[in-house]
């Protein structure tokens, strides 16, 4: 930007506007007849002052392409008309260096009853071309407009596109040093628009100064060297077209819309956060429901088992009184170690002491719980997994490696249990010893809800090592 | 001031003529038939007036002279009424040229009156035809007088238009008022009747109106070879110049606000 400014310093100024002010009187009651004026002689006419332009100052350098953006009523057309000398400013100064080609509208003076040819001469003369100049440029005007053989037809028979192209063609051939344009890019199809844009680029090369009033922000971004943003008759911003266009888009929103946008941004962030939490919560909720279902089933099962056991015990009591001695708590846990230092697996080591080998088969099991909700996640034992291990009197050791870290659980608790049963085929296992170890935050990352004999809501890959 | 006016005219001559000729072409639709058609209106008017009033007023010089006087006077007056009407409406009817581009506003006003002048030139052919039909050859001095009168009338029209056109932008009922005034001027000018029919004491009042002055003395010069005296011409000339001068001042006073009011 700094370098550009330096370059500008050496360039000639084409347009210098300083302290430009244009005031309109808006009467409360418009008088447009002598009769009205006569009647109004006796009553005071009130009006409001309205500053269409209020202290506007800027400079445009030679060869610059300047866009003027602004809302309807921001004063951009008034500014253009002041530059074009259509309006006389109330105060301030407009200095124009070079000849100006003011086309605030295309096809000024076009008469539908006249032929295209006559209209070219008429329009070009109004734009300031001499008769000889028009004659010299006539062919070029016709070919650019693509009107072709219709040139001697009355313009009223033209399509609106043809009319627009013809008008635009004459305008660009007026070829002055400074061009003022008001919303002319809206003419014709996209191909013709491209031609116009190419022509603008040509102007730039020829060091012509162009001032373009438009609503088309992309045109400003693409073609303008600098842009002016007018707001309520004042220059809101003057400079880099991208920044001006952004500011204009911003201004385009009403206050309410702006607040909405801000709020939307906030809620968007909140939403994202919320969604993350919600997902977690739903996972948990799902687990809880599952657990409840299973617990209910388990309860029913336990009640059933309890009933059956009571019945059986009744029978057994009658059969033998010595069996009760077999329940002796001669098994104690020595240690329960949980290691999760390996990347993807949890290694649980269970060490226990058997004082006296029971007569029944023995199995070692592991259960994983979520500590806070007491959700039973996964359970297994050596019997279910058909892991045959001969247990001995004295110290025993069982190691299980649990892999699959796919599932976020929160606080994990590992329970180890020793079961006893009468026979290996018998389903009635009895817990004779239990130990627990909290291991804190841990993730098992699988979501395989496969049915599993050991229970729990997911199936987790695991392997008994000893 | 005159040199300034001339340089301004030179600068915008091309524009004025193109505007005027465009209007002229539009009026006649680029065809001879269009021209004949456009002539029908004044000719019909002439026929009716001639038929009704010739028996009343054709006293001095007989019926031929009355018809010649009537057609000449009528054409002059139609020129005046059309030119002032066009001049009055010029800025409003060409509002695009006022609000969308800068061209000096007086060029629009002048072009409109120039168009009426071109129509009048076409109508001169008809007048010439009438003179030929009645085999009447006017004197050279009376033809020169006629040309002088037309130039003066045109300056008067421009003066009026420069005042009225910007005013019409603001007050749109001026057109209606002017129509009534034109109608009144038609009967207050000695077109249908010879001035001599009126009481002597009214002559000065009637002749104070430049249009009436032109019509009366043109008629007198063409048919009777009678001219006004020096003081009458001087007074007439001063009136025309005053109107033109006042027109320029009024135009300058109003010109800056035209685009806003239109």
Written description of the protein model:
The complex is a heterodimer of chains A (466) and B (262). Among the domains of chain A are: 283-321; 329-464, abc- transporter (atp binding component) like domain (Coagulation Factor XIII, Chain A, domain 1), CATH 2.70.50. Helices cover 35% and strands 31% of the residues of chain A. Chain A is built from 10 helices and 17 strands. In chain A, the strands form 4 sheets. Chain A has a 6-stranded mixed sheet, with helices on both faces. A 4-stranded antiparallel sheet of chain A has the order 10-11-14-17, with no helix packed on it. Chain A has a 4-stranded antiparallel sheet with strand order 13-12-15-16. In chain A, helix 5 (131-145) crosses helix 6. Chain B is mostly helical and 262 residues long. Helix content of chain B is 83%, strand content 0%. Chain B has 11 helices and no strands. Chain B has helices spanning 2-28, 32-57, 62-93, 95-99, 105-133, 140-170, 174-188, 200-208, 210-224, 230-254, 258-261. The relative contact order of chain B is 0.13. The model of chain B has no long low-confidence stretch (mean pLDDT 89). Chains A and B meet through helix 2 and helix 4 of A and helix 1 and helix 4 of B.
Task: Tag the structure with descriptive keywords.
heterodimer; A: 466 residues; alpha+beta; Coagulation Factor XIII, Chain A, domain 1; six-stranded mixed β-sheet; four-stranded antiparallel β-sheet; 35% helix; B: 262 residues; 11 helices; globular
């Amino acid at each position: 930007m700094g370098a550009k400014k330096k370059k500008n310093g050496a360039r000639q100024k084409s347009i210098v506007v300083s302290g430009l002010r244009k005031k309109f009187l808006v009467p409360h009651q418009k008088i447009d007849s002598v009769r009205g004026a006569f009647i109004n002689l006796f009553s005071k006419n009130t009006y409001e002052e309205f500053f269409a332009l209020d202290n506007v100052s800027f400079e445009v350098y030679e060869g610059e392409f300047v866009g003027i953006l602004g809302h309807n009523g921001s004063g951009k057309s008034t500014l253009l008309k002041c530059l074009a000398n259509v309006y006389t400013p109330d105060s301030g100064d407009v200095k124009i260096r070079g000849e100006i080609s003011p086309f605030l509208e295309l096809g000024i003076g076009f008469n539908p009853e006249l032929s295209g040819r006559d209209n070219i001469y008429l329009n070009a003369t109004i734009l300031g071309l001499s008769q000889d100049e028009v004659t010299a440029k006539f062919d070029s005007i016709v070919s650019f407009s693509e009107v072709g053989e219709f040139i001697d037809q009355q313009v009223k028979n033209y399509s609106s596109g043809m009319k627009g192209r013809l008008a635009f063609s004459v305008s660009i051939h007026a070829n002055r040093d400074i061009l003022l344009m008001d919303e002319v890019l809206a003419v014709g199809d996209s191909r013709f628009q491209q031609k116009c844009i190419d022509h603008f680029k040509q102007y730039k090369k020829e060091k012509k100064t162009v001032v373009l009033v438009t609503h088309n922000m992309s045109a400003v971004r693409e073609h303008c060297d600098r842009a002016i943003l007018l707001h309520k008759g004042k220059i809101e911003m003057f400079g880099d077209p991208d920044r001006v266009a952004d500011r204009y888009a911003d201004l385009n929103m009403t206050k309410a819309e702006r607040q909405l946008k801000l709020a939307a941004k906030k809620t968007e962030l909140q939403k994202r956060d919320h969604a993350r939490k919600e997902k977690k919560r739903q996972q948990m909720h799902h687990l809880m429901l599952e657990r409840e279902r299973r617990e209910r089933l388990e309860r029913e099962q336990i009640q059933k088992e309890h009933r059956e056991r009571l019945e059986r015990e009744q029978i057994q009591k009658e059969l033998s009184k010595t069996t009760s001695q077999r329940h002796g708590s001669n098994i104690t846990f020595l240690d329960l170690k949980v290691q999760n230092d390996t990347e993807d697996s949890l290694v649980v080591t269970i060490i226990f002491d058997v004082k006296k080998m029971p007569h029944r088969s023995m199995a070692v099991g592991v259960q994983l719980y979520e500590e806070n909700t007491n959700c039973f996640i996964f359970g297994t034992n050596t019997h279910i997994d058909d892991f045959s291990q001969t247990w001995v009197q004295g110290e025993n050791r069982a190691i299980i490696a649990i892999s699959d870290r796919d599932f976020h659980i929160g606080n994990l608790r590992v329970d180890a249990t020793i079961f006893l049963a009468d026979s290996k085929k018998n389903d009635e296992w009895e817990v004779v010893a239990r130990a627990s170890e909290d291991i804190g935050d841990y993730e098992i990352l699988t979501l395989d809800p496969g049915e599993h004999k050991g229970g729990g809501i997911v199936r987790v890959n695991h392997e008994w090592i000893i | 001031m005159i040199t300034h006016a001339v340089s301004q005219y030179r600068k915008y001559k091309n524009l004025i003529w193109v505007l005027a000729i465009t209007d002229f072409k539009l009026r006649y639709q680029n065809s001879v038939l269009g021209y004949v058609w456009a002539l029908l209106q004044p000719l019909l008017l002439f026929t009716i007036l001639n038929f009704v009033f010739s028996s009343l007023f054709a006293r001095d010089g007989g019926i031929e002279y009355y018809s010649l006087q009537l057609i000449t006077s009528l054409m002059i007056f139609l020129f005046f009424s059309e030119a002032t009407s066009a001049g009055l409406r010029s800025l409003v009817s060409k509002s695009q040229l006022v609000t969308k581009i800068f061209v000096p506003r007086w060029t629009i006003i002048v072009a409109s009156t120039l168009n009426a002048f071109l129509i009048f030139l076409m109508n001169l052919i008809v007048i010439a035809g009438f003179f030929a039909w009645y085999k009447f050859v006017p004197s050279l001095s009376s033809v020169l007088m006629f040309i002088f009168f037309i130039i003066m009338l045109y300056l008067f029209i421009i003066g009026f238009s420069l005042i009225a056109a910007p005013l019409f932008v603001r007050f749109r009922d001026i057109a209606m008022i002017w129509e009534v005034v034109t109608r009144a001027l038609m009967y207050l000018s000695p077109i249908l009747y010879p001035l001599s029919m009126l009481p002597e004491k009214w002559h000065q009042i009637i002749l104070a109106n430049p249009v009436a002055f032109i019509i009366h003395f043109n008629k007198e010069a063409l048919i009777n070879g009678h001219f006004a005296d020096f003081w009458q011409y001087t007074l007439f000339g001063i009136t025309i110049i005053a109107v033109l001068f006042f027109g320029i001042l009024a135009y300058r006073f109003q010109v800056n606000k035209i685009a806003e009011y239109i």
